[in-house]
Design brief:
With about 700 residues, this protein is of the alpha/beta class. The chain has a five-stranded mixed beta sheet with strand order 6-7-8-10-9. A four-stranded mixed beta sheet has the order 2-3-5-4. It has a two-stranded parallel ribbon with strand order 1-17. Strand 18 and strand 19 form a beta hairpin. Helix 18 crosses helix 19 and helix 19 crosses helix 24. It is globular, with a radius of gyration of 25 Å. The protein starts with 13 loop residues before the first strand and ends in a 16-residue tail after the last helix. Bound molecules: zinc ion.
């Protein structure tokens, strides 16, 4: 029996993202702005297919073709007529695809697409079932022959040239003269041969670095980015202010030239655009899915203000400066001046990318964050989808905890998200020495509270949190933010801000901590024992916190295996609510201080040792997490699929197109997403995938860099 974590059930839950109310309150101009930004996001979102696996673009194109010719109802009718049973309709994809209208109309194209992706999409080969470098998994951020050593070398090269990895991919191959060479390819509309002068052109050349050749080129995803830019230009005409206009101008420059500096400039305007009615962000943003942790996945979102939630978060912002003082590190480890971030709750209209988060804190550029600040966005309608857990699907809790959990999960999550995003990611300082040798801290007076000695390590010019802590950076930072949330929710003032007091407030604290402990256990789903690696930053972070609270002892937390009513393995997590303040708080305090000190001082060695120590999943007594992981997988509820609306232009009016929360609704939402493009868009996508096909699933020797 294959590992159930790689198998989605046929009856998987589907929820729809409700944005009707918020969208209804937009003015006609705001709707037009939101519409064109949504178009840009969806086109750019196709880039994610090219950043995932060699077969991903083919799967998309195949399904697109299939459902363009027949909607799900027609396809099903046709399949049942051909003798497939209802059950087979769910399971016999090959017969369904090859017997479809699309295959009858275009037998060669459909046959070819099926040939490329038919087996791979179901493959449970260890290397093909999750993301990873080289033999560890699948990735298209790197050619298949790249190793972790190659990734490190490339990072050093990029650092040496002050180039960002965010919008790049790395291909190892032979140059035209037969020499081993790494191609660092930037995402842009322009290719090097058609380049008017810009700040990027001098960088597009060959370099010798540590005995290797590096070729910096550009033009990755060019035709898709052209579509993105087209709609960003259109959106500009409906911008609410000059910040939005200039921001879009810089994004256009960034996607045209392949310039992360332009994207940073755009992000600075974006930060200055405080509290917009229509919020958005677009570009190569999160590095979670790069196995090395420094390349950004394309992401584009458009969201609309939700007024009631925003009011609570605004009050949290007003208290931020005071609450930061409650955090367990000396004032010198806090930013010189807390830059009040724009922290709003929004409802998502469009989120193109590999998943939809419940909250985001961007930009990710440390230099921009330190100087210009950042924004926090809590995505209210995404949270609403996440809560919708039925009582019978609540695993690993005591019966008496379940009602409390269901009652207070929403409010406690609201508190945790607010604290995590604002005071978690927003807190703490990095000690930096700039390129002129100047320090942003007083070397003589700042004392490391862990050692009692002066600061002996820091970030040099060009080094960032992500580049230094690479593979653990995302998860470590999520862990720090989650810990801040857990720690500060104990503060009465915080609960007051969220309108909570008395026994209710205590229940919210309890449910918040209980939820974290349970999430730590559930997180084991995202651990792969074969490679001893974690696949999801937030879940690893929660497991680490669970370990810290278990280590605190005194019966604060217990995790025990049990047998379920079905006779199969089960487990129970318990949290002693009377020990949260007496045992939990001091343990978390010490841990949080350590996380911050190692982050501030850029102490990678100690940071790694600490974080990887707590991240280790073993069969050691008393918990035996390896065995508990099996139970978690056995009992897991498949993650719900989310249906998103579309917007369309009717004359000069923008309409919202909504779809039912079902598989058919999900399919329709995609079928109607690119109405003006038809099959051309899939051809473009497949063309891009084919151009690089030699780098994957091929010989382990080095292919030529140029096709
Ligand atoms: Zn976070």
């Amino acid at each position: 029996m294959a590992d159930p974590q790689y198998i989605l059930p046929n009856d998987i839950g589907v929820a729809s993202l409700d944005c009707r109310e918020a969208f209804g309150l937009l003015s006609p101009t705001e709707r037009l702005y939101a519409h064109h930004l949504s178009r840009a996001a969806w086109y750019g979102g196709l880039v994610v297919l090219l950043q995932t696996s060699p077969e991903a673009p083919h799967i998309y194109a195949l399904l697109s073709r299939l459902f363009r010719a027949q909607d799900p109802e027609q396809l099903k009718e046709c399949a049942l007529k051909e003798g497939l049973t209802e059950e087979e309709y769910q399971e016999k994809l090959e017969r369904l695809v090859l017997g479809s209208q699309a295959a009858q109309e275009h037998p060669e194209e459909i046959g070819e697409l099926w040939q490329v992706c038919g087996d791979l999409m179901f493959s449970l080969e260890p290397q093909q079932r999750h993301l990873g470098l080289g033999n560890e998994g699948t990735t298209t951020y790197f050619s298949e022959n790249c190793t972790l050593e190659d990734a490190k070398l490339a990072q050093n090269f990029l650092d040496s040239q002050s180039l960002s990895a965010y919008n790049t991919r790395l291909f190892k191959g032979t140059d035209t003269d037969g020499k081993l060479c790494f191609e660092v390819r930037l995402a842009s509309i322009l290719r090097e041969e058609a380049a008017p002068d810009s700040d990027m052109t001098p960088k597009l050349k060959n370099y010798e670095f540590e005995g290797c050749r590096f070729q910096v080129s550009r033009g990755d995803y060019s035709p898709l980015l052209r579509k993105v830019v087209e709609h960003l230009e259109k959106a500009k005409a409906f911008a609410a202010n000059s910040f939005q206009e200039q921001m879009l101008g810089q994004y256009v420059e960034s996607f045209t030239q392949g310039s992360i500096d332009a994207h940073k400039k755009g992000s600075r305007y974006w930060i200055q655009d405080k509290g917009p009615i229509v919020e958005s962000y677009i570009g190569f943003i999160e590095s979670y899915r790069d196995p090395f942790g420094s390349r950004g996945e394309f992401e584009g979102f458009v969201a609309v203000v939700n007024k009631s939630m925003s009011a609570k978060f605004e009050r949290l912002v007003e208290s931020a400066e005071q609450l930061l003082k409650e955090l367990p590190w000396p004032p010198a480890f806090e930013k010189d001046k807390f830059l009040t971030p724009d922290f709003t709750s929004l409802d998502v209209l469009t989120f193109a990318g590999s998943g939809i988060p419940a909250g985001i804190n961007i930009p990710n550029y440390d230099d921009v964050r330190q100087k210009d600040g950042f924004k926090n966005v809590s995505l209210g309608n995404v949270l609403a989808v996440a809560y919708a857990t039925q009582r019978e699907k609540l695993t690993f809790l005591e019966e008496e905890d379940k009602d409390l959990y269901i009652r207070w999960k929403g409010p406690s999550f609201e508190v945790q998200v607010g604290l995590h995003e604002l005071l978690g990611h927003g807190s703490g300082k990095l000690f930096v020495q700039d390129d002129k040798g100047a320090f942003n801290f007083d070397q003589n007076s700042v004392i490391n509270p862990e050692t009692g000695e002066q600061i002996s390590s820091w970030y040099r010019s060009g080094e960032t949190w992500d580049s230094k802590f690479s593979t653990i950076a995302s998860s470590y930072e999520e862990c720090r933010a989650e810990s801040v949330g857990l720690y500060l929710c104990l503060h009465p003032q915080v609960l007051e801000i969220f309108g909570l007091g008395g026994p209710e407030a205590e229940d919210v604290v309890y449910v918040n901590w209980l939820n974290m402990v349970r999430a730590g256990l559930l997180g084991l789903e995202f651990y792969t024992p074969e490679t001893a690696s974690w696949r999801q930053a937030h879940m690893q972070a929660r497991f680490v916190i669970l370990r810290v609270l278990l280590e605190a002892g005194e019966g604060l937390v217990t995790v025990v295996p049990t047998t379920g009513s079905d006779g199969r393995p089960d487990a129970r997590v318990r949290l002693d609510r009377h020990k949260i303040r007496s045992v939990g708080k001091p343990a978390l305090e010490q841990f949080l201080r350590r996380l911050q000190v190692l982050k501030s001082t850029g102490d990678v060695a100690a940071g790694r040792a600490l974080y990887q120590g707590y991240s280790a999943v073993t069969d050691a007594a008393p918990e035996n997490f390896l065995a508990l992981r099996e139970t978690v997988l056995l009992r897991k509820e498949a993650r719900k699929l989310i249906v998103q609306p579309n917007t369309c232009l009717e004359g000069s009016q923008v309409q919202l197109l909504e779809y039912e929360a079902s598989a058919a609704g999900l399919i329709r939402s995609f079928s109607e997403r690119f109405p003006e493009d038809g099959p051309m868009l899939e051809e473009v996508l497949i063309g891009l995938a084919k151009a690089d096909a030699r780098f994957w699933r091929g010989p382990k020797e080095t292919p030529p860099l140029k096709a």
